[in-house]
Every structure is written in structure tokens, then in C-alpha cells.
Amino acid sequence: MKIFRFIPILAVLLILSSSDANAQCKAFARQTCIPALEAFTHDGNYHATTLVAGEEAELYKTFYSGMEYRLAVCGDDNLPPVEFRVLDANRNVIYSNKESDYARIWDFKLESSQQLKIMVRVTTAGPQTTTPPSGCVAIMFGFKLKQ
Amino acid sequence: MNKFFKMDNGVPALVILFAILLSACNSGGKSVKSEGATFRATRDNAALYDDLKKAEKIFYTLPSPLESAMLIKSAGALFDNTILNPVDNAKNYSTNRSMALNLGIFTCDLSFVSLYDQTQMIIDYMNAAKKMADGLGILDAISEEDISKLEENIHNQEVIMEIISQTYLNSNSYLEDNGQPAIAAMVLTGGWIEGLYLSTKLVSPKDIATNKLAGRIVDQKLSIDNLMSMLTGNKGNPAIDDILVQMERVKAVFDKITITTTDIKPEYSEAERLTLLRSQAKSNLTVEVFRELSSVVTEIRNSFVK
After folding, report:
1. What is the Cα–Cα distance from A66 to A111, expressed in whole angstroms?
2. Inter-chain contact A115–B36, Cβ cutoff 8 Å?
3. Helices (H), chain A
4. How far does A130 lie from chain B, in Å, by closest CA?
């Protein structure tokens, strides 16, 4: 039962690594994904999480007519390509970055305001390993200022 | 076997294991976590709900204070400082609930004054937002360097927007990463309700057929369900439960408005280098419903800033 003596240490290490992973995700979102918005103003919202190859995340957001938007979906360098699809309220796919060589940005504007759903998935491309790669994925939005 | 349950190893071990499980749940990678709202617009979205089960992580998002202020400005509304929450009120907020709601409210007001180049008010509202963030223990959300940078660039709207965006991101991410999603939800609620409040105050009921801002108010119907789900995900927190009841009233008024939209037809524009999502929308906002919405929103917002 000596193993139990190490559990508190293990627990502390795991908790610290969890909070460290969160901090790393925040830094990743700031340093890698926000710059991808370029001339678009970041809206200030934060959406980032750790995903393993094969896992999905979803985001729901209202987009407004008359505004120009940039959607940026960024994955850690150690992850396989990150696929994202944009769906309308009827689940019709209106954009997929798979057809644009997994581009990480998409610029768009709307004639009428709409709720859209962004589905993000870390692909399983690349060499199969015993431990699937995991890393931070951030979803950021920017809009263009209208003077 | 009894050794397992000795206080000097087994019980602490179980407690620690429980802590590990809690920590793992909180890290957000493996479980479906409902932080915000649902996907519901004007059509039957039942099929979309089925998808929720498959995702490892779900984000529900509201227009940020910066986006809300931009929607107001781009609709052609004129500046009116009398409708903002006075910065002097900052000293009145001492509970987590009031500080969180008013962090969102002050950030929305800050975004609003910055878009109308109200230089002194930009500094004042940034300081009011900082007071709220500091009170909530959000470390370095708004630093002294941010205030100095703001002062140095007070006539540079682009830099100001960047600072507001960054400080709002700091607050959001800190609260999410430190296991305070309920507080984060209150900040978002405060910012959203302030944007809606300012909009309703800047539109005269007789102009709803022609005022572009009235259309922006109707658009918020698309976000109310997101807000409700975000709050529901934090149910059990007394402050959230109370806010949920208030937001149910806003939703009840929005339910009286119908928006119909045609299917989206994406069309790539080479000239603009972007995709244009073509679709038409119609809504049936009446003067009576507008007045009711304005009245309910005003009552709730005033209870937040009291």
C-alpha cells in the first residue's frame, strides 16, 4: 500500500498540471490565435480548450448583418489539422475548411443576422501512436469597425 | 484490507482521488460542459440539440460589450451620456453578484464611450471596470499599464478597442480557468443587458419601423436562448437563480416577436475576398411589444446598477 503515500503528491501534480494547461491555453489563444485576426478587432470573448485527436467542440453564436467577421480556429503545433464547419439553423453546412486545405481563418458577412454553429474537430491524420496527441484549440472572432 | 481505510493513508487517498476527479471534470476536456445557451433561432432546431451529445466541449457565446457597442454605433445612434451607469456607482458594489454584473455593464459603457471618442469618460469607465475586476479578485485583468497605455493612446480608437478587448478577455479567461463560471456568466449577462438597455433607450417607439437600431434589438432574440442556457448551466447559485427569473421575463417578451428567415446561400466575393451569406429576414416587432421590452429591460437593468 506504499502506493497510497504517493497519491497526494500525484494529486497535487495533476491539479497543478490542469491549471497549467489552462494557463497555456490562454497564452496560446493570445499569442497564436488573436494575431490571426489581423485587421479585424477581437470581440474580447474567450473560447479555448484542450482537445485530443478525434475530439470535437462546438460553439453557438449570433452574427449580425452589416458586420464583417473573421473566424479563426487555431490548434497547437503538435496536433493534426483542425477541421471546422459552420452550420446554419437547419444544420446545412455553409462552410468547411476541409475544402480549403484546413485553412484556419474564414472571412464572411451576412445579409441578415443569424445564429450559426461552429463545429470543430481535431482530425486523426498522421502516424498512429499509443497516446493520441492532445493540445489547445482556440476559437476566436474578430469584426471590422464600421466608421 | 483494513489498511485501505486507515486514516493515515486510505481516507486521504480517497479524498485526493475525488479531488483529482473534480479537477479533471473542471479541466473541460472530457465532459460536455454547458456554459451558455442553446442553438435556437426562428426555426425548429430540435435536430441540432442531438448534436450536443457528441461534442467534448460546448461554448455558448453572447455578443461581447465591444460588439454590442459597435452594433449601436453602426446603427447610427447618437451619443447620450445620461443613460450610462454613473462611474460614481462603482463604490456601491461590494458583493460578487453586483461586481460581476457591473463589470459587464461598465465594460459595455466603456466600449460605448470609446466609440464616440469621449476621452475623459474612457478613462473613468476603465477605472470603474478595474474596480469591479479587482474586487472580484481577477488578477491583472486591468493593470496600471493598461490604464497608462489607454491614456497615452486616448485619441487612437484602434488601440483603445484593442485594450478593451484584451482586458475583457483577461477577465473571461481568468474566471473560466479558475472554476468560476457562474461569475463569468454574470459578467456576460451584465454586458448583454446593458447593450440591450442602451439600445432601447436610443430608439423612440414611433421610429421602430425605420430605425436601424430597432432591428438590432430584434436581433437579440437570437441570443436570449443562449443566455438562458448559459445561466441554467450554473443553476443552484442563488444569484444565478435570481437572474434566471429576471431573464425569463425578457425571454417572454422576445417570444412575442417572430423572425422568419430564408435559407442561407453562401456566395464568395472575389472583390471583397470574403463569403457573403445571402438570406432575407422579416420580423413583426410592434410598438406595444417594443414598449414592453423596453420597460422590462429597464427595470432589470436598474435593479442591477442599484
Report:
1. 7
2. no
3. 3-28
4. 18
User: How would you classify residue B282: left for phi > 0, otherwise alpha for psi between -120 and 50, otherwise beta?
Assistant: beta
In the numeric block, which cell numbers belong to residue B7? 486514516
**Any domain includes B109:** yes
Q: How far apart are CA B110 and CA B118, in angstroms?
A: 9
**ipTM computed for the complex:** 0.85
Scanning A7-26 for CB atoms below 8 A from B yields 7-8, 10-11, 14-15, 18-19, 21-23, 25-26
Q: Does the beta-carbon distance from A50 to B29 stay under 8 Å?
A: yes
Quote the CA–CA distance of B148 and A107 in Å, as a whole number: 33
Taking Cα atoms as reference points, which of A21, A69, A24 lies closest to residue A45? A69
* Confidence band, pLDDT 50/70/90 cuts, at residue A83: very high
Helix B287-305, helix B238-254: angle, nearest 10:
160
In the block, cell 477581437 appears at A42
**Is the pLDDT at B69 greater than 50, yes or no?**
yes
Cell numbers given for B284: 413583426
Q: Which residue type occupies B39?
A: F
Per-residue pLDDT tens for B146-160? 999 999 999 999 999
Note whether residue B75 is domain-resident: yes
> Are the beta carbons of A74 and A138 closer than 8 angstroms?
yes
Cell 456554459 belongs to: B35
Phi, psi (deg, nearest 5) at residue A47: -135, 105
What does the longest C-alpha to C-alpha distance in chain A come to? 69
Query: Whole domain around residue A85: which residue ranges?
Result: 3-143
Which positions in chain A touch B17 (Cβ < 8 Å)?
A: 7, 11
Span B269-280, pLDDT tens digits: 999 999 999 999
A97: β partners: none
In this prediction, residues B61-89 reach a mean pLDDT of 96
* Residue ranges making up the domain that contains B100: 64-305
Q: Is residue B51 part of a domain?
A: no
How many structural domains compose chain A? 1
How many C-alpha atoms does B198 have within 13 Å on its Cβ side? 30
Chain B hits for A119, Cβ within 8 Å: 51, 55
Subunit contact B23:A47, Cβ cutoff 8 A: no
For chain B, how many structural domains are there in total?
1
Residue A125: per-residue pLDDT: 77
As given in the structure block, the three cell numbers for residue B280 are 432575407
